[in-house]
Structure formats: C-alpha cells, structure tokens
C-alpha cells in the first residue's frame, strides 16, 4: 500500500497545483536567462578576488577624487559610486586599475515583469501565499517522484540504472525526473523558505552595531593601505564598503563581508564593531542564489532546464493517467457464472492491456471469463481455470494491485479444484526479471487443489510474439483456439523507412540455414550496433525485430538471420535480391550498446545472436580487449563468420575467439560449459570493471545466468544483480 500512497499523492498534488506550476515554471524559464544575460557582457575581471581590500581602496583612491562606496554583486562585478568630472556616478571598474569598464546593468523590463508574476501573480500578498503554497506542493510532488523512481529501480543505488522504454510518456517522465528532480527539490525548498521569510514566519534578524564613541581615537593616524583589517580580507570576501560621510572621527568605514560586518576607524584602522551575520541571514542569502541562479551561469542553466521539465512532467503524467484509465477492467459476465478467471498484477496498466486482449479472445470463443486484480482475488464459485498475468516491481516485488495476493492465498479456503497458469511480464534489463510471477507460481503450486496447466511463461519488453506463443500453448492445452489481436496490445508504428539490400548470402548455403544480409538507408538517424530493426514482411503483417550490427566504415546495417521452415519474415528476407527495398524502422536499444568505458568486454552468444557483435567488434578501433564466446552445432556453422573472425584476431579487435560446438563430438559442449571452465577469468574481468554482454536465445541465457551467479557468489562474494545494477552485465535475448 505504500507505493499506492505515493503514487496517488503524486497525482493528486499535480492535479491540485498544475495551473500555478505551469505559470511558475514558464516564468522560471525566462528568469533563468537573466544570469546568462548578465554574464554575456561580462565585467568580471579574472584574479580580482585575490586582491586585498587595502589594494583595492588604494587603487580606487588614486583614480578618483572622492569615492562614496564600493560593492560587489552576485556576478562578481565590482561597482563604485564616486564623484568624477561628470559629477556623481556609479559604474563598473577594473579592480586592478580602477578604470571604468562599463555602465551599471539596468534590469530589463521583461525580467521585472516576470519576477512580479513569478513572485505574486500581480496579486500582492495573496498571490505570494499561493505561489509559496504551490512551491510546497511541488516539493511534495518531487519527493514523491524520487521515492517512486527508487521503488521502481529497486534501490537508491539503482536510481540511475537502465530504464526500459515501454512508451514515450513513461520513459521520459522517469528519465527527465532522474536528472531534474533534485534541482527541483532545491528550487522548491528555497522557494518555500523565501515565502516563509516574506511573511515573517521565519523572522529576519538584523545586525546591530554598538560603537563606543567616547573612546574613539584619532591617533596614531595610519595610511589606509596599512590598516590591518583591510590587509586581512580580500576582494573575494567583500560584499560592499561604505566610506565615511565626513572627516569626523565618529564616521567610519562600514564593511560588509560574506560572513560578517565590520566598522573601521577612518584614522587609526581600529575595529569599532564586528558582528557575524546570523545563521538565518546566511541561509537567506544562499537560498536566493540557489533559487535565482544569480552568480552562476551553469546553475542558472540547470534551473532553466529543470523549469522546462515541469510542464513536460505535467503533460506526460496526465497522459499516463489517461492511458491507465483506458485499461480499466470491463467484464461482460458476473464472476459467479465464469469458468475462467484472469487475475492481473500491473503497476502502470500495461499488463492489463495484455489481459484484456486475452479476455476478448476467450469471449470471442464463447467462453465466460472474468478479469480482476490480484488484490481482489476471492473464492469464485464457478472457477475452473485461473490465469495469472503479472508484472514485477522493484527488486522482485509485487505490483501495486497485487500486494495483498499472498495473504489472500494464505486464508483462501475452497473445495473446488482448478487449473492455473502464470505468465510474467518484465524486462531482462532488470536483475529480478519476472521474479514475482515465479513467486506466484510457487505459491499456487503448493495448494492441494491446484494443477499447473502450462509452465510459467515470461514476456520480455512487452513482446507480442512471446505473448502470442504463450497464448498458443495455453490454447493447445485447453483445446481452445486463442486468436490474440495484436492491435489490442501494441500500437501500430506508422512511420517506416525504406532500406535497400546491398548484398546477402543464402540460407541454403549454410548448414544451419543461416544467412547474412547487408542493407543501407538514406536517413541520418544515428545507428548503433545493438539497436533493433523492425521489419514488415508483408503489408498488414506485424513486424519482426532483429538485433543489428552497424559497420561504421561502410555505413551498412548487417543482420544475421536464421531461416525457419514456416518463418514468414526469415523466408521473406532470404528470398530478397540485391537492390530490393524493404520497409521497417529502427528502435534504440541503449541498454545493449558496446560500453564506452570498460577494462575488457566478454561477448557471449549462440547462433545468430552474434549479429550485433559483428558490428561491435568491427567498430572496435580502440582495441578494447574483447573476447567472443559463440555456440553452434558444429564447426561448419562457423563458415559464415570465419573470415571476419580471423581478420579481427589478426588486427586485435578481439583477443580470443572461444567456440562451443554441441554436435561436433559425443560430448555436447555449450557456451555455459566454457564460461564455467573459465570461471577465474570471468570473475577477474568483472572485478576489474569489465563488461559481459549476452545475446541469443532465452534458453541459453538462463543457463549462462546460472553459471554467472555461481561465479559471482563464489569468487566475488557478491550477487549477480550487483553487477547488473552497475550495467556490467548486459543482455538482449529472445
């Protein structure tokens, strides 16, 4: 229930304050430009902060007949008020020479207008109250957002680890949130503080000086440049100096430093009074600087970007809420009359889309089905078949609407027997892939009145193909033809590109019916080995995804494809001739790119899983130590890649090629056996900031993961997910 509290609080706060937040963010964007504008015409003089105050006063005194005051603003510009040949003037100077270098920057009318709108909405004290209250709400929104990201990523350590891109709104809501929520927290805390200060809820504390005028001395007279206090502090410490009004001994230098104020005898240099600023005064000054960005162009830019993110958060947050509403459960039959119960565990509504598609497939076959959340599971009178569809949240935890399911099962009392099936949804980018689904399966398996219909099935990255495979297996076990509507689950991609075939091999020429196809395109969109290419084999058909290798030197996209007997897309690609045009689109897969910083890279793959590695190795011009483990049936399977591998070994783009052949001899050797054999090398690579990349079948991946887990536990004394969270183990399997 904790996650529900934070999510609903997050949404409620956003709804109640979004109008004020939009105004505050838009005005904040404009005001963030002011420090940048001020620094565009820079009157900052490098090295001036190291000058002593004595040197500054002496320089200025030699340059001007009478000086009234000196001040240093947030941008470190030194300005003086002095009497010159033109009368009383205020201007910026070079502190080394005392020469005038510019006129005082007048604040632009647009910034004055935006400041008033930003502070009070032109409504005076009432407006200031609303703005301050909106800042408080935004602070709570940001805190709840940070909590939700931590929960989603499983831990504080995983805050900046991989995020799976399920859809635009959800993905960028989290991505921008990770980088801007902390600055937004700072903006809101300082905004609330300044509002409390404005309404005197936090009291202002003024410095009060007490001067013993009776005992002020006029002797011994010292030259100003010899005053000890002026030589003790530098221009870097200085905020302002007010000169004595007259030559009377009672008039003094009033010095404002960053931490204190000092009154100095104009004749002897004695300190007449010295008062440190109260803590509240220092906090107030820092709050203003942090809230406005004045004095730091880089911080002002960060504030501006953070303000830009707020309207996007509002848009994407509301859009996600509307998308969740679309997945609301709608049942055609009462639960009391249904044989089939579909129980769903979903965090953001995406799993419900799959459940609804399956529900409609059952209804279309004339079956009575009822769909519900796992938290609402109960004793259903007519239930004969239970289908559990659930996502996993955080570190293998239940989604929001499934938190009560374990307790419900513990108290569940029924005499009815039923079959059950569990399908888990998740991403292999996360270490606890579909863990909650396996937990649910283990709980149901222990019950005396249940029978597992089909083994637990997992769906990676919302793959419709994988979901459809499960639907076919479930339907075959039940004797019910399940026809799933893809459009119920996945939005159709309307923007496609044309790719031209440059050259290819034939599947018939390889013992494994495998072939290579090289294609090119006209677009300028950046392509990286490990990205995905979605291909439409026929008009109206669903796309197939292929992991690509990109050859930078020739700017070609290369696919490694295995032709299947009834494979629509693989057959389509194999039958293509050179210069043929195919339609598709590229999908970024940043979680499976060759690492930019790694002591070494170990690549593990089987069959056509070598595809993305072909491009990664070919582009390894910096010769990062790389090792390729590859599994196939026999040595003749290697013919397709043999020439490239020999060339890479010769040019040291890979250090070693380690093949595993399962049918070369009576002893079947798989890649996991070689990984187990080289356990010490694998452990040393991980220990020394190396990266392991795995690509190929899910079956291979599961076996390799078991071995890697053993290596991590035995040699490194750390769990596998420790390295996954640090992006040191990357996977793209299917």
From TrEMBL:
<protein>
    <submittedName>
        <fullName>PepSY domain-containing protein</fullName>
    </submittedName>
</protein>
<dbReference type="Pfam" id="PF00175">
    <property type="entry name" value="NAD_binding_1"/>
</dbReference>
<feature type="domain" description="Flavodoxin-like">
    <location>
        <begin position="340"/>
        <end position="475"/>
    </location>
</feature>
<feature type="transmembrane region" description="Helical">
    <location>
        <begin position="171"/>
        <end position="194"/>
    </location>
</feature>
<dbReference type="InterPro" id="IPR017938">
    <property type="entry name" value="Riboflavin_synthase-like_b-brl"/>
</dbReference>
<keyword id="KW-1133">Transmembrane helix</keyword>
<dbReference type="InterPro" id="IPR005625">
    <property type="entry name" value="PepSY-ass_TM"/>
</dbReference>
<dbReference type="Pfam" id="PF03929">
    <property type="entry name" value="PepSY_TM"/>
</dbReference>
<dbReference type="InterPro" id="IPR008254">
    <property type="entry name" value="Flavodoxin/NO_synth"/>
</dbReference>
<feature type="transmembrane region" description="Helical">
    <location>
        <begin position="129"/>
        <end position="150"/>
    </location>
</feature>
<dbReference type="InterPro" id="IPR001433">
    <property type="entry name" value="OxRdtase_FAD/NAD-bd"/>
</dbReference>
<keyword id="KW-0472">Membrane</keyword>
<dbReference type="InterPro" id="IPR039261">
    <property type="entry name" value="FNR_nucleotide-bd"/>
</dbReference>
<keyword id="KW-0285">Flavoprotein</keyword>
<keyword id="KW-0812">Transmembrane</keyword>
<dbReference type="Pfam" id="PF00258">
    <property type="entry name" value="Flavodoxin_1"/>
</dbReference>
<dbReference type="InterPro" id="IPR001709">
    <property type="entry name" value="Flavoprot_Pyr_Nucl_cyt_Rdtase"/>
</dbReference>
<dbReference type="InterPro" id="IPR029039">
    <property type="entry name" value="Flavoprotein-like_sf"/>
</dbReference>
<feature type="transmembrane region" description="Helical">
    <location>
        <begin position="297"/>
        <end position="318"/>
    </location>
</feature>
């Amino acid at each position: 229930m904790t996650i529900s509290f934070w999510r609903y609080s997050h949404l409620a706060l956003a709804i109640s304050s979004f109008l004020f937040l939009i105004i505050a963010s838009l005005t904040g964007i404009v005001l963030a430009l002011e420090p940048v504008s001020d620094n565009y015409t820079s009157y900052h003089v490098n090295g001036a902060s190291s000058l002593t105050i004595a040197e500054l006063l002496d320089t200025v005194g030699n340059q001007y007949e009478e000086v009234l005051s000196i001040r240093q603003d947030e941008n470190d510009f030194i300005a003086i008020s002095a009497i010159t040949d033109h009368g009383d003037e205020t201007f910026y100077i070079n502190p080394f020479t005392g020469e005038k270098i510019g006129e005082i920057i007048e604040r632009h009318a647009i910034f004055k207008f935006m400041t008033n709108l930003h502070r009070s909405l032109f409504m005076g004290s009432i407006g200031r109250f609303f703005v301050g209250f909106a800042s408080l709400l935004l602070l709570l929104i940001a805190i709840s957002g940070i909590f939700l990201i931590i929960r989603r990523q499983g831990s504080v350590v995983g805050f900046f680890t991989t995020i799976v891109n399920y859809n635009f709104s959800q993905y960028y809501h989290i991505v921008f949130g990770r980088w801007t929520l902390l600055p937004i927290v700072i903006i809101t805390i300082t905004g609330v503080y300044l509002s409390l200060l404005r309404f005197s809820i936090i009291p202002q504390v003024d410095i009060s000086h007490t001067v013993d005028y009776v005992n002020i001395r006029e002797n011994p007279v010292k030259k100003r440049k010899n005053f000890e206090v002026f030589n003790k502090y530098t221009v870097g410490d200085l905020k302002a100096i007010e000169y004595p009004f007259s030559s009377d001994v009672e008039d003094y230098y009033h010095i404002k430093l960053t931490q204190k104020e000092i009154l100095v005898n104009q004749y002897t240099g004695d300190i007449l009074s010295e008062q440190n600023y109260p803590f509240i005064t220092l906090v107030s000054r820092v709050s203003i600087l942090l809230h406005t960005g004045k004095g730091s162009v880089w911080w002002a830019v960060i504030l501006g970007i953070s303000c830009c993110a707020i309207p996007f958060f509002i848009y994407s947050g509301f859009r996600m809420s509307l998308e969740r509403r679309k997945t609301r459960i709608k049942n055609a039959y009462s639960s009391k009359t249904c044989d089939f119960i579909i129980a769903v565990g979903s965090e953001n509504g995406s799993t419900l889309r799959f459940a609804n598609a399956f529900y409609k497939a059952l209804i279309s076959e004339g079956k009575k089905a009822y769909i519900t959340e796992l938290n609402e599971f109960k004793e259903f009178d007519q239930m004969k078949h239970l289908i559990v569809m659930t996502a996993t949240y955080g570190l293998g935890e239940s989604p929001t609407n499934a938190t009560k399911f374990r307790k419900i099962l513990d108290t569940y009392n029924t005499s009815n027997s039923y079959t059950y099936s569990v399908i888990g949804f998740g991403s292999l980018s996360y270490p606890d892939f579909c863990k909650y689904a396996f937990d649910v399966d283990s709980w149901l398996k222990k019950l005396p009145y249940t029978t597992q219909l089909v083994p637990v099935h997992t769906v990676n990255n919302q793959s419709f193909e994988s979901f459809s495979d499960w639907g076919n297996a479930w339907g075959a076990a039940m004797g019910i033809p399940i026809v799933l509507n893809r459009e119920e689950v996945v939005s159709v991609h309307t923007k496609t590109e044309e790719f031209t075939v440059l050259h290819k091999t034939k599947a018939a020429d390889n013992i494994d019916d495998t072939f290579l196809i090289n294609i090119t395109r006209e677009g300028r969109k950046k392509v990286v080995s490990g990205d995905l290419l979605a291909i439409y084999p026929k008009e109206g058909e669903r796309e197939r995804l292929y992991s690509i290798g990109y050859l930078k030197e020739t700017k070609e996209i290369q696919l490694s494809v295995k032709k299947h007997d009834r494979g629509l897309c693989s057959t389509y690609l194999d039958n293509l001739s050179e210069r043929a045009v195919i339609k598709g689109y590229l999908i970024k897969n940043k979680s499976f790119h060759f690492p930019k910083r790694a002591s070494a890279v170990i690549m593990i793959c089987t069959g056509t899983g070598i595809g993305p590695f072909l491009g990664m190795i070919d582009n390894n011009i910096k010769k990062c130590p790389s090792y390729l483990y590859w599994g196939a049936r026999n040595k003749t399977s290697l013919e397709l890649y043999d020439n490239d591998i020999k060339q890479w070994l010769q040019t040291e783009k890979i250090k070693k090629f380690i093949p595993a052949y399962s049918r070369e001899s009576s002893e079947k050797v798989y890649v996991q056996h070689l990984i187990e054999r080289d356990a010490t090398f694998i452990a040393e690579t991980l220990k020394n900031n190396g990266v392991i990349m795995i690509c190929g079948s899910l079956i291979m991946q599961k076996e390799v993961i078991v071995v890697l887990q053993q290596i991590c536990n035995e040699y490194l004394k750390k769990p596998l997910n420790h390295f996954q969270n640090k992006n040191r183990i990357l996977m793209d399997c299917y």
